Amino acid sequence: MGMSSGMSYRLASGQDRQDETGSTRRVVLGAAGVAAAAAALAACSTSSGGGDATPSPVSGIPTSEIPLDGGKVIAGARVVITQPAEGTFKAFDAICPHQGCEVTDIVDNVIRCPCHGSTFDATTGERIAGPAPRGLTTLPVTLTGSTISVR
Ligand code: FES
Predict the structure, then answer these.
(1) How does pLDDT run across 111-150, given as a tens digit for each residue?
(2) What are 91-111's pLDDT values in tens digits?
(3) Which of 78, 111, 116 to mutate to test the pocket of ligand 1 (most atoms within 8 A of CB)?
(4) Do 88 and 80 contact (CB within 8 A), yes or no?
(5) Residue whose CA is at the smallest distance from ligand 1 atom 1
């Protein structure tokens, strides 16, 4: 939405004022850039705003979906489930305590935030490195047969 309106504005001003295109374009581009950045920030804080409250409970996650020494981010629930040892499952709030990005990769028992590279221990949630001020919040896991629930 913001992007397309910015583009049509730029085109219109280019046609109307050919002589001043240089300066006009620069100003318009600058404004569009600021608008885009603001939109990105707004989108970011909107999504993390909901996440700051609490992760959503999830249930019925098959253990087979959680790789050993890896894990999975449950889409839409802000929950990350890991399997740091065979048959041992852990769950954490998937929102990075740095600036609210959702963690993405879990490799070799390390949970990684894509935004600024904070890393967390997939067993304890503790911060390993990066700008995050603390680790991920641990969530209680219930294993029922071969399915996982997280509250
Ligand atoms: S938000 Fe995760 S490292 Fe910055």
Answers:
(1) 999 999 999 999 999 999 999 999 999 999 999 999 999 9
(2) 999 999 999 999 999 999 999
(3) 116
(4) no
(5) 99
The Cα–Cα gap between 10 and 75 comes to 37
Which of 44, 52, 80, 98 maximizes ligand 1 atoms within 8 Å of its Cβ, making it the mutation to test the pocket? 98
Residues 93 and 53: their CA atoms lie apart, in Å, by 10
pTM for the full predicted model: 0.67
48 CB within 6 A, ligand 1? no
Q: Report CA(18)–ligand 1 centroid distance (Å).
A: 44
* Degrees to nearest 5, angle at CA 144 with 97 and 85: 55
DSSP string, 87-149: TEEEEEE-B-TTT-PBP-EEETTEEE-TTT--EEETTT--EEESS-SS-PPEE-EEEETTEEE
Q: 41 CA distance to ligand 1 centroid (A)?
A: 14
